[in-house]
Amino acid sequence: MIKNLLKYPDPTVRLISANVRFFNDELHQWINDMIDTMKANDLHALSAIMIGIQYNIIVIKEADNYTPYINGRLIKHADVCTQTERSTYYEGISVDVDRYNQVTVIYEDEKGEAHHCDLEGDDARIFQQQLDYCYGSTFVDRVDRETKQRINDYLSGGLVKDARGGSCPIVFYRDYFKRGAKYGMGLILLSFIAPFFVASDMREWITKMDIGLLIAVVVLMIGYFFYALYESRQYKQCTSCQMGNIIGTLLILSGQWLVVGSGVYFWIAS
Predict the structure, then answer these.
(1) Which of 65, 107, 123, 126 is the most exposed place for a label (fewest CB within 10 A)?
(2) Structural element, H or E, at residue 132
């Protein structure tokens, strides 16, 4: 069934889409409605929230097929590039937006089976555009302050605001702390092969280097925790899921740190 697309100033666009938990006939009907709506409006992609369905479902037209991406997430990204974008929500507006040109995506299909794929170029950009909608965001949230103000002045009622404190971003800056911690432990792991190639008097220097990296990783983990708390206060509408991810990430990093630290003590320092 063809559904009406959300248009400015409908505030529904600011709702955060929930994850799909049941892969049943109702889900299949939603996907069919999305495809019918895409065909009727000549769209190449659509998020469920844009027809009023508050679930993380994206359908993308790929050649002659319509592929559903359910509970989609970005797990890897690279190569930022700028292109002009338009939106079915903010009609008559086009702006230059920075997005990743290469992304790795995890998602589930309509049967609940997990998949991952690499997207590049226009495919990567289209997926990110639609994922923005799932997180209560639009391209307006990705432009600089001056451009956003011009858009606000252009719109009859100003930009649609989220009274709950802002939309969830796709990528959190706290992830840079996590990435730094992983790189640090990766360097320590590389040092484990050093005893096979260096003289015994070099092991003391390698041990000091590894201890320094272990301390740096702890600092990054602490930084991750406090910055994650800061971000969770900024995006209050998804605090509960964020806190679970924060605690889970810290537990995993702590376990990895203990394993690596034990390796330094028993292998490098001994």
Answers:
(1) 65
(2) helix 121-134
Distance CA 186, CA 205 (A): 18
Residue 47: give its domain's CATH number: 3.90.45.10
∠ CA 3-9-11, rounded to 5°: 80
The answer to whether residue 264 is domain-embedded is yes
Indicate whether 149 and 180 sit together in one domain: no
Q: How many residues does the chain have?
A: 270
**Coil, strand or helix at 87:** coil
Tally of domains within the chain = 2
Can you give the pLDDT at residue 164?
45
Same domain for 125 and 221, yes or no, is: no
pLDDT higher at 131 or 197: 131
pLDDT digits over 156-175, tens only? 888 886 544 444 555 567 88
CA–CA dist 150, 211 (Å, integer): 52
- In a 3-state reduction of DSSP, which class is residue 181? helix
Q: pLDDT tier at 59 (50, 70, 90 boundaries)?
A: very high
Q: CB atoms < 10 A from the CB of 11, how many?
A: 12
**How many CA atoms are closer than 13 Å to the CA of 15, on its beta-carbon side?**
17
pLDDT at 162: 58
Q: Is the dihedral of CA 248, 242, 27, 64 positive or negative?
A: negative
Name the range with the highest mean pLDDT among 97-101, 156-160, 198-202.
Answer: 97-101
Candidates 25, 3, 45; CA nearest to 110 is 25
pTM for the model stands at 0.63
Sole residue written with tokens 């359910």: 70
